[in-house]
Amino acid sequence: MTLAARLAAAFARPPAEPLLAADDFRFPGEHQPAAVLMAVTDRPEPGLLLTLRQPHLRRHAGQISFPGGRVDPEDDNPAATALREAAEEIALDPAEVRVLGTGAPYLTGSGYRIVPVLGLIPPDLPLFPHEDEVAALFEPPLSHLVDPANHRVGQREMGGRERRFFEIRWGDRHIWGITAALIVNLSRQLGPAW
């Protein structure tokens, strides 16, 4: 079975465990629609593309994230949003992405309703981070990220209250918060046999 077929089949079946639905902080208003691209590289040891946000950004500065953002009026669906944002942020040609499915929405404490879009891309594409938004682009092994043994619960004070969140370490990279929660959901969707 090809990697694309394995991923699509896993994404189509019910998850092995309940998925995370929201941050521990409930946003008081209406959530804005958004989407991110979970781009898996099609290689013998598949990786997952992640970005390091620039330290000067107003929101989530210096954090690790997936390419993605708010839904624009011209976006037909979450996949269109995720592909448009990935093209803007890392110069990923949408024609190179094989969209395999969309995950359950995740509600953030910052007011977004994020739909993860799972896509498969060829390895070693020439990608170029948008210098105003993305400080770095990197590709940890998918097997490391989705291994539940690497998922930890962290906590810290933010906005005057104690917050709890998932975190994943990979080398010197600290993946936490929304991005880690989406990876935990991907892990649960792929199941223990992955």
**Radius of gyration from the alpha-carbon trace, in angstroms:** 16 Å
CATH homologous superfamily classification: Nucleoside Triphosphate Pyrophosphohydrolase
CATH architecture: Alpha-Beta Complex
Report the uncertain regions. none
Characterise the protein shown here:
With 194 residues, the protein is an alpha+beta fold. It has one domain: Nucleoside Triphosphate Pyrophosphohydrolase (Alpha-Beta Complex). 22% of the residues lie in helices and 32% in strands. Strands 1, 4, 5, 6 and 7 form a five-stranded mixed sheet that branches. A three-stranded antiparallel sheet has the order 3-2-8, with no helix packed on it. The radius of gyration is 16 Å and the shape is globular. The chain starts with a helix and ends with a helix. The mean pLDDT is 90.
Structure keywords:
11 strands; 3-stranded antiparallel sheet; 5-stranded mixed sheet; 22% helix; Nucleoside Triphosphate Pyrophosphohydrolase; alpha+beta; 194 residues
Give a summary of the structure in a few sentences.
This protein has 194 residues and is of the alpha+beta class.
Outline the fold blueprint.
Elements: H1 3-12, E1 32-41, E2 50-53, E3 64-65, E4 68-70, H2 78-90, E5 98-102, E6 106-107, E7 112-121, E8 134-138, H3 142-146, E9 151-158, E10 161-170, E11 173-176, H4 177-190
Parallel strand pairs: 1-7
Antiparallel strand pairs: 1-4, 2-3, 2-8, 5-7, 6-7, 9-10, 10-11
